[in-house]
Amino acid sequence: MQKQQQLYKGKAKTVYATDDADYVIMHFRDDASAFNGQRIEQLERKGRVNNRFNAFIMQKLAEAGVETHFERELAHDEVLVKRLDMIPVECVIRNYAAGGIVKRLGLEEGQTLTPPTFELFYKDDGLGDPLVNESLAISLGWATQAQLDEMKALTYRVNAVLSKLFDDAGLMLVDFKLEFGEFHGRMVLGDEFSPDGCRIWDKQTKKKLDKDRFRQSLGDVVEGYEEVAKRLGIALD
Ligand code: 5GP
């Protein structure tokens, strides 16, 4: 697969075209950003750790019957994925209150949300990814009701699979964000699943092992990601 021109540069990943119109290459960079890109730092090894982490999770999800864009790892920080027609909303599941919902509603951090809460955000950096609802997403043509139904069902399915995986490793999957797109008319999980886009706490101590270590300047950010990887049995080189 031949790497071609850069298509898109996000806050932590760069996407390149390939000689096959159905596939693109994602490069995981070491950049970490917070507060909508206002704070950007380089964190050594983050790109390769997230690439391995994402590959492991995507393979687990595929085994559980969730179709993902993951094809194969090409290098320590690069992966070959299907080229999706992305739906511009982020699907978030919250098992416990943290982050945005704590600020918005004044909840206690760690409060259990039963059943887990599903939220939609409009993917727009300029607007700071605002919270939206299904009605608006349909009115503005971002997705159809059928697409939203499928994305929501898949997000809950991912939650069931990953909550168990993390729980078995002594970890709490507090919340996470997914992005979907269409591939030849099928709804497919895209983007990435890594500690950059979810919250993971140690079950006993409630120690934060995800990107909140960066957002809240707790230190040892990549070390937190590596700790989770180790507990899940992910081989890091
Ligand atoms: P919150 O709304 O609490 O800020 O985020 C909820 C969950 O979605 C967290 O796990 C957070 O990491 C993830 N998330 C929300 N927006 C983004 C985003 O723009 N990029 C990434 N990587 N993760 C996000």
Automatic annotation (TrEMBL):
Pathway: Purine metabolism; IMP biosynthesis via de novo pathway; 5-amino-1-(5-phospho-D-ribosyl)imidazole-4-carboxamide from 5-amino-1-(5-phospho-D-ribosyl)imidazole-4-carboxylate: step 1/2
SUPFAM superfamilies: SAICAR synthase-like
GO CC, one annotated term: cytosol
One Pfam family matching this protein: SAICAR_synt
Ligase in keyword set: yes
Recorded superkingdom: Bacteria
Catalytic activity: 5-amino-1-(5-phospho-D-ribosyl)imidazole-4-carboxylate + L-aspartate + ATP = (2S)-2-[5-amino-1-(5-phospho-beta-D-ribosyl)imidazole-4-carboxamido]succinate + ADP + phosphate + 2 H(+)
InterPro entries: SAICAR_synt/ADE2_N, SAICAR_synt_PurC, SAICAR_synth, SAICAR_synthetase, SAICAR_synthetase_CS
Domain SAICAR synthetase/ADE2 N-terminal: 6-231
The enzyme's E.C. designation: 6.3.2.6
Annotated keywords: ATP-binding, Ligase, Nucleotide-binding, Purine biosynthesis
GO process terms (BP): 'de novo' IMP biosynthetic process; cobalamin biosynthetic process
Spans traversing the lipid bilayer: none
GO molecular function ontology, one term from the record: phosphoribosylaminoimidazolesuccinocarboxamide synthase activity
NCBIfam families registered for this protein in UniProt: purC (TIGR00081)
Family per similarity comment: Belongs to the SAICAR synthetase family.
PANTHER family: MULTIFUNCTIONAL PROTEIN ADE2, SI:DKEY-6E2.2
Protein name listed in UniProt: Phosphoribosylaminoimidazole-succinocarboxamide synthase
Organism in which the protein naturally occurs: Faucicola atlantae
